[in-house]
Amino acid sequence: LALYFHSGEREEKCIIEDIPSDILVMGNYKVQRWDTHKQDFLESAPGLGMFVTVTSPSADVLLSKLYGPQGTFSFTSELSGEHIICLQSNSTRFVAFAGSKLRIHLDIRVGEHFLDESVVQAKDKVNEVNIRLEHIIEQIHHVTKEQNYEREREEKFRKTSEETNSNILWWAIVQTLILISVGIWQIKSLRDFFISKKLV
Predict the structure, then answer these.
(1) Among 111, 153, 118, CA closest to 136
(2) Closest C-alpha to 75, from 89, 93, 60
(3) Which of 77, 95, 112 marks a domain boundary?
(4) Strands 24-35, 101-110: parallel, antiparallel or unpaired by DSSP?
(5) What is the spatial distance between Cα 96 and Cα 106, in angstroms, rounded to a whole number?
(6) CATH number of the domain that 69 lies in?
(7) Quick one: CA dihedral 14, 72, 1, 31, positive or negative?
(8) Does residue 145 lie within any of the structural domains?
(9) What is the pTM for the complete model shown?
(10) What is the domain extent for residue 177?
(11) Where does the pLDDT of residue 113 fall: very low under 50, low under 70, confident under 90, or very high at 90 and above?
């Protein structure tokens, strides 16, 4: 997931990521500040910090840390489900003057383990192959966890659908019985009315 969004200073922005359990999540971000003279965003935002908070589906805080204007954060999910990732700039200016517009670039990668550049350029080819193989195995484990999580979600959705269909069926049967009962009651009432008026 790579995106950018605009925010005011000290304004909190959150995104929701649906993540399987026991998965490494890495996020890279960069903050740019709006320059009123150039009418454009500056390449960086010196003096600004970014407070990153990550909350699990059970409302546990997995990460709460202050970073610089550009940085990388990471956490490991404990439960499957929707994780809330919030970013808030930490302006040193007074609230009344902290109204600059910010552009925040955010790149979130789920389940990826990055190879060290020194490993990529390693002279020892056997070690390089071993490390690349371990990296591929980690990626396979990640794909397996993703598949298991999607299978769990599909099974939960199927059970919910079956319960809903069952409820609809019973409701239709109850409605039919009510309509038949009302119809019989109306016929009996009309018959009694005609008999009382000696029309039959």
Answers:
(1) 111
(2) 60
(3) 112
(4) antiparallel
(5) 27
(6) 2.60.120.680
(7) positive
(8) no
(9) 0.62
(10) 167-199
(11) low
Q: Clarify whether residues 17 and 104 are in a common domain.
A: yes
Closest CA to 4 of 81, 87, 82: 87
Say if residue 99 is in the same domain as residue 171: no
Structure tokens at 126: 């056997």
For residue range 52-90, what is the model confidence (pLDDT) as tens digits? 999 999 999 999 999 988 899 999 998 888 999 999 988
Q: Which amino acid is at 56?
A: S
Residue type present at position 29: Y
Pairing label, strands 61-67, 70-76: unpaired
Look-up of token digits 């299978």: 151
* Residue 144 Ramachandran class (φ > 0 left, ψ -120 to 50 alpha, else beta): alpha
Query: Looking at the DSSP assignment, which residues form a beta bridge with residue 17?
Result: 83
What are the pLDDT digits (tens) for 122-140?
Answer: 556 677 788 778 878 888 8
Please give the Cα distance from 180 to 175 (Å, whole number). Answer: 9
Residues 108 and 9 in one domain: yes
